[in-house]
Amino acid sequence: MKIAISGNPIQSGLRKMSNRALAPSTPAQDPAPPRHAVDCPGLRWEKGRLSAVRERLVAEEPLAVEIAYERQGQAVRRVLSVTMRTPGEDAELALGFLYCEAIIDRAEDVLAGELLGENARGEKIPTWRARLALPPGAQAVERVSRGIITSAACGLCGRTSLKGLRLAASGTTRSPAASGDDVAALPGKLRRMQRCYSETGGCHGAGLFDEAGAPLIVREDVGRHNAVDKVIGAALQGGVRCAGRTLVISGRAGFELVQKAAAAGIALMVAVGAPSSLAVRLAGDAGMTLVGFARDGRFNVYSHSGRQIRG
């Protein structure tokens, strides 16, 4: 399933929504642009001495993803997830999350989005509320069922079931096989575009690359799954095709990241770190070529090795 679409229903700026499902709302209090890094004083021990230092640390703050819609004439607002993320690109994060969780099928399913300072549960935390054109499937909403604070490391925390996850047949959209040298060069290309990592050393990166190995979209976040959600959400917003292309991630390839890549139709996924056994199995089932330990000029291929990579 391709996610290339026309139109751009969610703009980078915030849009007010008049649908009564959104009232009452509390606007976010801080209008300042989000900070991806913050200053932190500390002490450094080196060569037997302590000295005062001021470090730049990656920012980590909660974000609730909430949906608003009408069902049988009744206004409904529901918090689906509260994740710890690096502020910035919240609309992309929410859109990618909703797509990968099969709450929406295309960008047009979200009429508008708004950043608020309080969610439907009365929690006074940053909340991205997405106004849906149609009610989501009840089973999809129940399956997500996070509704709890999740760590930045895990995209599946709080899930009640793995059934019903969105999977696209990645192998149905073929692209020219890349050379081993080209694949080995991808993590370095991603690393050079990670500005937040260069500043803090503390965030993950994800990048969508085209068939020629050129970067299309690169995003960073304190959470691995958030970085991938931001990439997929940005692709949805901009009508950028993911199907048949390459996703590069700066860390390990866990099941939740492979699932998101498969949902977008990614043909080749390249991870700097190790994959898990379940991730390899899912990549094989989805027809995706999965590469791990891509660093120092070498890598391992764990599924569909002859499909996307040539010697």
Give structural notes:
- The longest helix has 15 residues, at 224-238.
- With 311 residues, the chain is α/β, with parallel strands linked by helices.
- 24% of the residues lie in helices and 31% in strands.
- The chain has a domain at 170-310: Cytidine Deaminase, domain 2, CATH 3.40.140.10.
CATH topology of the domain at 170-310: Cytidine Deaminase, domain 2
Ends distance: 29 Å
Rough shape? flat
Q: What is the succession of H and E elements?
A: EEEEHEEHEEHHEEHEHEHEEHE
Radius of gyration: 20 Å
Query: Mean pLDDT, rounded to whole units?
Result: 84
Stretches where pLDDT is under 50 for at least 5 consecutive residues are: 1-31, 158-162
Fraction of residues in β-strands: 25-35%
SSE map:
Elements: E1 37-46, E2 49-58, E3 61-71, E4 74-85, H1 90-100, E5 110-116, E6 127-132, H2 138-144, E7 149-150, E8 178-179, H3 180-192, H4 195-200, E9 204-209, E10 215-221, H5 224-238, E11 246-249, H6 255-263, E12 268-271, H7 277-286, E13 289-295, E14 298-303, H8 305-308, E15 309-310
Parallel strand pairs: 3-6, 4-7, 8-15, 11-12, 12-13
Antiparallel strand pairs: 1-2, 3-4, 5-6, 9-10, 9-11, 13-14
Helix pairs in contact: 1-5, 5-6, 6-7
Essential attributes:
311 residues; Cytidine Deaminase, domain 2; alpha/beta; five-stranded mixed beta sheet; six-stranded mixed beta sheet; flat
Concise structural overview:
The protein is α/β, with parallel strands linked by helices and 311 residues long. 24% of the residues lie in helices and 31% in strands. Helix 1 crosses helix 5 (224-238), helix 5 (224-238) runs parallel beside helix 6 (255-263) and helix 6 runs parallel beside helix 7 (277-286).
